[in-house]
Write a structure and sequence with these properties.
binds FE2/S2 (inorganic) cluster, binds fe (ii) ion, Rieske Iron-sulfur Protein, four-stranded antiparallel β-sheet, globular, Naphthalene 1,2-dioxygenase Alpha Subunit, Chain A, domain 1, seven-stranded antiparallel β-sheet, oxidoreductase, oxidoreductase activity, acting on paired donors, with incorporation or reduction of molecular oxygen, alpha+beta
Length: 355
């Protein structure tokens, strides 16, 4: 099981999911309830009432203005988690509060910090500006997967699986055949994996959406900001257009594929996925095609990873993996995740009343 790195930012939800309804999510094993104040500020509280542990994200718990009224006996919490009213008595016990968590809304994502709040630095959150920028159109979704989040990191850092698992959608023979280059910035916790194909079959995903006929140049440049944000800069163009010799942003169809990998609990992960494009932006047909097609691709991974987790669960401990060149990025990511988890290991655990 891949250890959790607690002192890190994680995507708990898309901005559009957080509103005036109470939303329940679990991040790093912490049950959370999310909502927005009337002014629009996102709030994240521990999702257990301090009285008898009723989940605050569950009906008939409700919002009263900016306050959460527990649906069991009416304990009422303000956005800081402080209990401001209890039934049957005027005096509210001093210890009646639930933890609240640092939260930042950026690039249409709601980021939460589960670890030591004193170490929460919003500037450390990696950017994904294309998700919320004029000139870009994004399709997105989220799938929960019953697997160790490390398996999803492995999956995304090695795209050679596209040829086999996603054949007929995004995979062609050239993806698995073309060697990768890997760069690791250990200090910043960033892994970059690139695969540049000069003359490749155009997979249906791009042939149908871009209208390119014939073979393509195709670039996949991965930038993984451990632990949560994964960016895949994808470029395709008819053969000969890529790459631009001067290293400038080459012509062609430029697509940003974003994942947020958020460990939910042991053996569970939220797979936030998005596909953004700056071409054919007013073509609703292309938008629908990419939404449907990418959802299918994501579900192929979901099915495979659910299966893999179940399979690994039946293995005797101490089995040996066999890694090859394509695994270089994934192995680097594992190293970084292990270090980040170790750095957070001594951090304060959240305690009711400590925030
Ligand atoms: S469990 Fe919430 S008020 Fe009793
Ligand atoms: Fe995949």
């Amino acid at each position: 099981m891949t250890a959790f790195a607690r002192n890190q930012w994680y995507v708990a939800a898309y901005a559009h999911e957080v509103g005036r309804e109470l939303l329940g999510r679990t991040v790093l094993g912490e049950p959370l309830v999310l909502y927005r104040t009337r002014e629009g500020t996102p709030v994240v509280l521990h999702d257990r009432c301090v009285h008898r542990r009723y989940p605050l994200s569950e009906a008939p718990t409700r919002l009263d203005g900016d306050r959460v009224v527990c649906g069991y006996h009416g304990f009422t919490y303000d956005p800081t988690g402080t209990c401001v009213a209890v039934p049957g008595q005027k005096r509210v016990p001093r210890t009646a509060r639930v933890p609240s968590y640092p939260v930042v809304e950026q690039d249409s994502l709601v980021w939460v910090w589960i670890g030591d709040p004193a170490r929460a630095e919003p500037r450390a959150i990696p950017r994904a500006a294309h998700l919320d920028s004029p000139g870009w159109v994004t399709v997105r979704g989220m799938e929960p997967i019953d697997c160790d989040y490390g398996l999803l990191v492995d999956n995304l850092l090695d795209l050679s699986h596209e040829t086999y698992l996603h054949g007929g959608y995004i995979g062609t023979p050239e993806v698995a055949e073309t060697p990768i280059t890997t760069e690791v910035d250990e200090g910043a916790g960033i892994v970059r994996v690139s695969r540049h194909m000069d003359d490749a079959e155009c997979p249906p995903f791009y042939a149908e959406s871009t209208g390119i006929q014939g073979r393509i140049s195709r670039r996949q440049d991965i930038e993984y900001h451990a632990p949560c944000l994964y960016l895949l800069h994808s470029r395709v163009a008819p053969v000969g257009v890529l790459p631009a010799a001067d290293g400038s942003d080459p012509d062609g169809f430029h697509t940003e594929i974003t994942y947020a990998i958020t460990p939910s609990a042991d053996g569970k992960v939220y797979d936030f996925w998005a596909v953004s494009r700056d071409w054919a932006t007013d073509d609703a047909g292309v938008t629908e095609f990419l939404r449907k097609n990418n959802h299918t691709v994501v579900m192929q991974d979901v099915v495979a990873l659910n299966l893999l987790q179940r399979t690994l669960g039946t293995e005797r401990t101490g089995y040996q993996e066999l890694s090859i060149n394509i695994d270089t990025g994934g192995l680097a990511a594992r190293r970084i995740l292990a270090r980040l988890a170790e750095e957070g290991a001594g951090a304060a655990e959240p305690v009711a009343g400590a925030r």
